[in-house]
Amino acid sequence: MRPAWRPGIRTAYMRALVAYALVVGLCAAVAVAPMLQRWDWLFPMPGTRSACEAVGRYEVIRTRAAVAEPAGVDAAALAYAQESGRRKAVAGCLASTTTLWLPLYGAGAAVLVGAGAWYRDRNRAGRRSPAGSSPQEPAGAGARRTGPA
User: Following DSSP, what letter does each residue of 62-91 receive, concatenated?
Assistant: First the structure.
């Protein structure tokens, strides 16, 4: 016979596990987000990266058009301004895209962390339980008392 308090403990355990997984998952997503922006091998985002490169090309054209008299401007200074503007535009585009996807990264990391913590806890509980009892019940839960209560 199972004690009446057992489902409450399991519910509290699952709530704590979900809270732990969400916190760790969000922290992991925030930590990994800059790498996701810079390294296309880590998270390709093919459509996003090409769109951000297009924004960078547009910024180069806009910088060139913003100069009132291109003939009087030093070519090296113009090239530097165009490249700087392109880098800033691409970085801003990737940052905003990563920010939009951050909750998904966090949820994915939370699922992985939660599954890992649950699996580790189940293995640890299985090793601690004595032979003949299930890992779901505490040791001695099925034992009968022989003395006075």
Answer: HHHHHSS-GGGS-HHHHHHHHHHHHHHHHH
Query: What whole-number distance in Å separates Cα of residue 10 and Cα of residue 14?
Result: 6
Q: Which of 47, 17, 46, 23 is nearest to 106 (CA)?
A: 23
In terms of phi and psi (left: phi > 0; alpha: psi -120 to 50; beta: otherwise), the region of 70 is alpha
Task: Find out whether 51 and 136 touch, Cβ atoms under 8 Å.
Answer: no
Instruction: Go through the chain and tell me how many residues it has.
Output: 149
pLDDT of residue 88: 92
61 within 8 A of 30, measured Cβ to Cβ? no
Return the exposure string of 127-146: e unless at least 16 CB atoms fall within 10 Å of the residue's CB, then b.
Answer: eeeeeeeeeeeeeeeeeeee
The span from the first CA to the last CA of the chain, in angstroms, equals: 18
Residue-wise pLDDT for 25-35, tens only, equals 888 888 887 78
Residue 85 near residue 62 (C-beta atoms within 8 A): yes
| 51 neighbors 93 (Cβ within 8 angstroms) | yes
Task: Say how many CA atoms lie within 13 Å of 33 toward its Cβ.
Answer: 21
- pLDDT tens digit sequence for 53-88: 888 898 888 888 877 566 667 778 888 888 998 999
